[in-house]
């Protein structure tokens, strides 16, 4: 008796789920780059223009840039820029810090920074300079370091002791 009841409940449950699942599969889809996509459903959210932060001490600027290097919109840049910042940020001059600040904060798309650093796309003239050259060279990873994660922040404590 119990097995008949189990089969009956199982059959009813499966029958009730089939149409719902089939309905979901047929109605879901990715429009993406489809030719008939008018992109009318996209909303362009304007970003405020980047402005250089005046009145920051070099120490505060370095700390802000370190944080901003670690917290990016995509993992690839989190890893790349945080490791770059760990290696070079403390030795940058004020002019280099301004270049780096502009480079990582003015473009609205993190993929642009990644493509420029990996030399997949040409760098716009406004971002061309010694910091971009240094970043491109760092990105080549000539020593073939394993770069799978952002560095721990323990190295910061060593400098303050």
UniProtKB/TrEMBL annotation:
Q: What is known about its subunit structure?
A: Interacts with SDHA within the SDH catalytic dimer.
Note one Pfam family from the annotation.
Sdh5
One GO cellular component term noted in the UniProt record for this chain: mitochondrial matrix
**Know the name of this protein?**
Succinate dehydrogenase assembly factor 2, mitochondrial
Q: Does the keyword Mitochondrion apply?
A: yes
What InterPro entries does the annotation carry?
SDH (IPR005631), SDH_sf (IPR036714), SDHAF2 (IPR028882)
UniProt keyword annotation of Magnesium present: no
- Superkingdom: Eukaryota
Which GO BP annotation is one of this protein's?
negative regulation of epithelial to mesenchymal transition
| Assigned protein family | Belongs to the SDHAF2 family.
Q: Which UniProt keywords apply?
A: Chaperone, Mitochondrion
Q: Where in or outside the cell is it found? A: Mitochondrion matrix
Q: What does this protein do?
A: Plays an essential role in the assembly of succinate dehydrogenase (SDH), an enzyme complex (also referred to as respiratory complex II) that is a component of both the tricarboxylic acid (TCA) cycle and the mitochondrial electron transport chain, and which couples the oxidation of succinate to fumarate with the reduction of ubiquinone (coenzyme Q) to ubiquinol. Required for flavinylation (covalent attachment of FAD) of the flavoprotein subunit SDHA of the SDH catalytic dimer.
């Amino acid at each position: 008796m119990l097995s008949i009841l189990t089969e009956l409940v199982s059959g009813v449950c499966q029958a009730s789920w089939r149409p719902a699942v089939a309905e979901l599969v047929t109605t879901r889809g990715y429009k993406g780059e489809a030719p008939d996509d008018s992109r009318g459903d996209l909303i362009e959210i304007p970003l405020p223009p980047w402005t250089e932060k005046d009145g920051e001490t070099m120490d505060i600027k370095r700390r802000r840039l370190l944080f901003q290097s670690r917290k990016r919109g995509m993992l690839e840049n989190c890893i790349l820029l945080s490791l770059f910042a760990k290696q070079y940020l403390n030795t940058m001059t004020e002019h280099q810090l301004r270049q780096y600040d502009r480079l990582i904060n003015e473009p609205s798309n993190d993929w642009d920074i990644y493509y420029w650093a990996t030399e997949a796309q040409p760098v716009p003239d406004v971002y061309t300079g010694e910091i971009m050259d240094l970043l491109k060279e760092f990105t080549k990873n000539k020593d073939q370091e394993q770069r799978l994660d952002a560095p721990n922040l323990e190295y910061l404590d060593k400098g303050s002791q």
